[in-house]
Amino acid sequence: MAASCIVHFPLITTPRSQFSASRGQFRCSSAANSNAMDSGKVKFMEFPYASAPTKKLMVELFSSVEEQLGSSLHPSCTLAPDVQYFGNPTDTAHASLHIRSGLPSSQIDFVLGSWIHCQLPSGGALNITSLSAYLTPSTDAPHFLLELIQSSPTSLVLILDLTPRKDLILYPDYLNRYYEDTQLDRHRQRLQMLPEVRPYISPSLYIRAVVSPTAIVVTIDTGATESKTIEQIIEDDVSPIAKDLLRFWIESCACCGRDVDASERAYLAQRDRIIKKTTIDVDLSSSFPRLFGQEIADRAVNALKEYYFK
Q1: What b/e readout covers 204-229, taking b as 16+ CB neighbours within 10 angstroms?
Q2: Which of the 8 DSSP states describes residue 191?
Q3: 192, 199 contact by CB (below 8 A)
Q4: pTM (global) more than 0.90
């Protein structure tokens, strides 16, 4: 997969890619708008352009979040209906965004699921499915990130990580607590034993600095082999790892984060803000207009800013 075809949403970006405020701001009071929001969730959960194993995985992951963390989340997505699902005027790009924001008493900031489909000028299509979860500065536990970026039937880029929120050199206990003692690196090692898997090196040095040492950032390519298809690898290898990592994040990060003092909270808030700002400025604000046109892009990006910078 050529790097110039990759749009990493919501965290990872590459050069020339083709691709909260108040938590009640976008809440609808009328029955019609409520029905539209329910329709938006249905559209999101369809994952219409994803392969069957990818759809199954994403539905299971998002369902796990809702089942295990539902009491800590706002009961519904508070994005406007025209941000939950949108496309460009030429019908060559479509996207769905679904956000569940955390309640004020929760350590969860928000959970964001998305899928993006874009027809490529060279033929074929780029399909991105992602699930990310951000915690508040009341805990220093890592965030969660999963992205599947596919631009051909035989290859994709997988990004799966618990993204650290502290400098791992300055805070070795943090490295031990979340990455070393937990043996999270076994997941990366397992995947990279497959002949179809090789490391993906982002051209962005900034991105390489953001992910953890145990991050899974790989290309899966079955074009030169006949042993396994992409779909089989997602079902047999990627899915168990992703579900196990999400389970660990829910149990050990979202529900068991460490309390931090005021100075640490300020540090965490500043660090999170820088990463979120980079996501918006470098990735979404450049790629969305090319995919959807300026007006639609502005509407979606401005809505996301309400959550990223609240």
Answers
A1: beebeebbbebbbbbbbbbeeeeebb
A2: H
A3: yes
A4: no
